[in-house]
Prior knowledge:
single chain, alpha/beta, three-stranded antiparallel β-sheet, 17 helices, 41% helix, 17% strand, RNA-binding
Amino acid sequence: MGRRDRLKRKLNQPIVVEAPKTLDYSGFKFEITFRDTKSRARLGRLTTPHGTIETPNYIFCGTKASIKNLSPQHMRDAKTDIILANTYHLMIQPGPEVIERAGGLHKFMQWHGPMMTDSGGFQIFAMGHGGVADEIKGRNRNTNTRSLMGITEEGAKFKSYWNGDTLKLTPEASIDIQRRMGADIIYQFDECTPYHVERDYTATAMERSHRWGDRSLVEFEKGHNGRQALYGIVSGGIYDDLRTISCDWTKDRPFFGTAIGDCLGGSTEEFYEIVGKCMPQIHPDRPVHLLGIGAIRDVFSCVRMGIDTFDCVSPTRIARHGWALTRGGEGRINIRNAPFRDDQEPLDPSLDISASRDFSRSYIHHLFKAGELLGTQLVAQHNVAMINRLLREVRAAVKNGTLDALEKEWLGG
RNA sequence: GGAGGGGUGGCGGAGCGGUCAAUCGCACCAGACUGUAAAUUUGGCGCCUUCGGGCUACGCAGGUUCAAAUCCUGCCCCCUCCA
């Protein structure tokens, strides 16, 4: 065996720790208040130290401690309950110590409601492959700038996109950073595997993510005071048996909640199938989060399967590209398109925010064409308000048993 | 009046004998986007088409050549400098 091989073996030697059996979640509560009789849909109340939210609910992505284009006031006006920020980006800039000295994320960014942080695990995937669509379609836009340097048992190594520094993210580091930033809900460190890998790779990565999860729990337990709740992540990619193993693994650990993560397949149908098969195997009393998902039709489908919370960049990202969500019709319109040049109607007068009610499509079309940032802001706030309205209506419909009818109103057919 | 430079697709601007229906940028038309290195990115953009191709095109009119946006002649415009 050569030196290189010995080193490789050493780097991949499993690091096994014993996870705690129980943890203090005194600042948190998850109550299931209603169950649908026709599906697995359920209503709940998730209490955190920064407030209680009704579930199902939607978590908007403010990766760098900012919802792109929107202030906390914009978010509140759009009736947002909860947002998320990202460990990976914030550790690079401004660094966890800055946020800690500022008094934590809530104070730093002036968001006083419930918050979650992602562990940075997703960036192992994103930095290595560029993005979901690119990866699934076999494109790689980041060929020359790929910044994932490698994954070992200890953690993942990245090249900082900010200044080229070599960064290491381990389960311990991720939890430590998340603790110092102080979001209510935090995540175990995991790897999100790509679609185009062998089953063996997914299995190996899953087992490693489980060990990372145990290390996350151990680190989380240190100095823990019940002000944060840790979620475990179900991985296993597109393989039913691996998903089963992973569901069991999360169930056996003292996580407050469960998230469905990892690769969800190459199509919407495949991803519904994976979620559908996982749900009955997930801890029934804990809140279930679906990582990274959030198209309107996905919300309907996945609420029926029992998902409690979603998060997705889509509402704010597509807004910057001109797409405004609609209730009914095609589900969205692109305000840049020629037909809106002289359209005097607002985006949606039934939403009680100025962005949706007061400005004509003609004006917003103009703002986009003229490159005025106000355009992207108005559409972003509109989309956030729209999604929040969607989730409010979904909760009411679950209670009234009218989810099917509601879906028709939103998506037609 | 003298000297020089130039007129190319909606605009700007390459090309300076064939591989040019014409690089590129803008504008325009549409698409993609699912734990955000995204105000990113992809395609289309003369006319017709049975998608093989056909037709009309680089100021206007002639000419040279197997072949011209590219060379020659004349004409019409525009710009700079000198008087």
